[in-house]
Amino acid sequence: xxxxxxxxxxxxxxxxxxxxxxxxxxxxxxxxxxxxxxxxxxxxxxxxxxxxxxxxxxxxxxxxxxxxxxxxxxxxxxxxxxxxxxxxxxxxxxxxxxxxxxxxxxxxxxxxxxxxxxxxxxxxxxxxxxxxxxxxxxxxxxxxxxxxxxxxxxxxxxxxxxxxxxxxxxxxxxxxxxxxxxxxxxxxxxxxxxxxxxxxxxxxxxxxxxxxxxxxxxxxxxxxxxxxxxxxxxxxxxxxxxxxxxxxxxxxxxxxxxxxxxxxxxxxxxxxxxxxxxxxxxxxxxxxxxxxxxxxxxxxxxxxxxxxxxxxxxxxxxxxxxxxxxxxxxxxxxxxxxxxxxxxxxxxxxxxxxxxxxxxxxxxxxxxxxxxxxxxxxxxxx
Amino acid sequence: xxxxxxxxxxxxxxxxxxxxxxxxxxxxxxxxxxxxxxxxxxxxxxxxxxxxxxxxxxxxxxxxxxxxxxxxxxxxxxxxxxxxxxxxxxxxxxxxxxxxxxxxxxxxxxxxxxxxxxxxxxxxxxxxxxxxxxxxxxxxxxxxxxxxxxxxxxxxxxxxxxxxxxxxxxxxxxxxxxxxxxxxxxxxxxxxxxxxxxxxxxxxxxxxxxxxxxxxxxxxxxxxxxxxxxxxxxxxxxxxxxxxxxxxxxxxxxxxxxxxxxxxxxxxxxxxxxxxxxxxxxxxxxxxxxxxxxxxxxxxxxxxxxxxxxxxxxxxxxxxxxxxxxxxxxxxxxxxxxxxxxxxxxxxxxxxxxxxxxxxxxxxxxxxxxxxxxxxxxxxxxxxxxxxxxxxxxxxx
Lengths: 382, 397
Known about the structure:
The complex is a heterodimer. Chain A has helices spanning 7-23, 26-34, 41-49, 68-81, 87-101, 104-115, 220-256, 268-296, 302-332, 343-353, 360-369, and strands spanning 121-124, 140-143, 149-155, 166-173, 176-183, 189-195, 201-214, 258-259, 262-263. By secondary structure, chain A is an alpha+beta fold. Chain A folds into three domains: 7-119, Acyl-CoA dehydrogenase/oxidase, N-terminal domain (Butyryl-Coa Dehydrogenase, subunit A, domain 1, Orthogonal Bundle), CATH 1.10.540; 122-218, Butyryl-CoA Dehydrogenase, subunit A, domain 2; 221-369, Butyryl-CoA Dehydrogenase, subunit A, domain 3. In chain A, the strands form two sheets. In chain A, strands 1, 2, 3, 4, 5, 6 and 7 form a seven-stranded mixed beta sheet that branches. In chain A, strands 8-9 form a two-stranded antiparallel sheet. The longest helix of chain A is centred in the middle third of the chain and has 37 residues, at 220-256. Chain B has three domains: 2-89, Orthogonal Bundle (Butyryl-Coa Dehydrogenase, subunit A, domain 1), CATH 1.10.540; 124-229, Butyryl-CoA Dehydrogenase, subunit A, domain 2; 247-394, Butyryl-CoA Dehydrogenase, subunit A, domain 3. In chain B, 47% of the residues are buried. Chain B is an alpha+beta fold. Classes of the chains: A alpha+beta, B alpha+beta. The interface between A and B is large, with 50 and 62 residues.
């Protein structure tokens, strides 16, 4: 049994964290956050040159041909540095949707630009007043004679939608869910760019008879399910990075902040609460591994368990993230409430992440409905 | 978990699974599965079968009956044992005194005690805690005063689990009261039949007799019963407690108990269907399932780094103890709540007789088990002690 990162992954993690420490420190991030676009295209270009954007894209489309294992390493490092650029939106959700669902032609057309850092993607799946529901959108697709398709409907919470060049849109045609590609500059597309509480960009997008292409020809439900599961596994890895940084920072603060003539960390009340956070972080690391294994497993029947294992992981991560983000602010006291101090930024990112693609309550209900993780077994012998 | 194992490990798991289910009498496993109390004979029978096959003391050195296993194999051995509801070998023999003797004892003391300990020809009791030395164990006061070729032992030990069956007791005793408290402790083996040893039962809130007080009144103990060096007992005790923490999360047993609560919930009627479909109950159950998975993965992560080379005790095992014990308590409470009013009677037999319905299997022990399980966040280093270790060793506070 070997659950550690392999040499290539360790190398990737250490190169990336070195880069982020020098090129993406708190001051730099602050500057990016305050910029008009809220992202640094220069950094994005460097990420692309480092091969990070097309990490899991097959090599014949310009990617590095690696797996989600490496994507998770990047996500965790980005979580530690609270990277603002749309890695999840473009490199995980968008690229995955096209790799899994696109036709050969669509892959050739879009993926090389993505891998080079020239093209941003966004998955437009959520709609107003329907929370996290994905399966039956009101947005509709209409095919005309000659094969052209148009999309009509409204999407919100489109992560990375503020800068996207292409949207991957869920829409229903003849009662069937489909995935469609829509260029952001197509006629009939109107978007309102937003910033999430964590500084990442999103958008509300209206499609009014916007010209679209159907994404490939496979089962859109299956593609969407895998895209979301992988997206959640990436969020989980990123959350672990953010939690680790938060707890390290908080432990450091407990050691250095003095009140009543001693470091506040000398108080057992705080020591024990910090220890609980450490245990939560270990749980989170474990479930990041669990979900990573779930989405990369090639074992027979793994697909069936993939969704179950990812949502179980996210249920645990939600609890860890909530405790660590809330307690980190509390233990910092007033300074934790300020924009100038980083701890609150971690709390904001964690708070948003655990509510991206479903929250813990709905996931718990769903996991219960599909039978949970343990088979019932009465008190007799099998 | 099986998918994480490599081919040999999977085969090993299969082999253990098969062994436990064919070699350990079904009657014993049934008792464990249904939460019935095991007798001394039950435990001895089970351990002797394990010992015959080399499975009682795998954590010991090979020359004394241990197995040259990886940490992962040891984990599988224990996990499969718990899943098969096999009575576990007596921890006092197998994980406590055995390894201490094997590591620190003289050749003579090893030969004298180790084979009998593995085969449970000697039933060991643990003489560590005292009325005023609980979490602060090093403040213990039981004294052993050297008098020629023997020690004279006086004092009191408590919480001596299953001491009513004990043949011998391994004791921490104070041999020097003039030095720092940790530096004056020795590790002494005492025959419980010696004059001056008295065992008195302590009744627990679960209705059972599991623990005892042990009194020593001018008990004469030959000096050759000292393990290792005089006044080095604290080092040996820390070694022992470190071993105790491994496997203390009892993940396999928690899985069995959770699966049982779930099976009952599925056949328990409520106003709107079964209890398993009840939204609040199922949310609580499901969160516990997810947490148990997190605990198991944490254990496997720790094991996998151990397998990769380091054999030192990992302070992260405190996380396993802290979280694993809490989960055991949560699961025991879940079962009580599944049973509802039927679970509230303190009864010792599920067969009620005279045309009355039998209680469901496992219903008898739900409430006693709930109360008994309160101990798991107290023993083996209380949750507060574990938090202290995490705070110091892992957070540097």
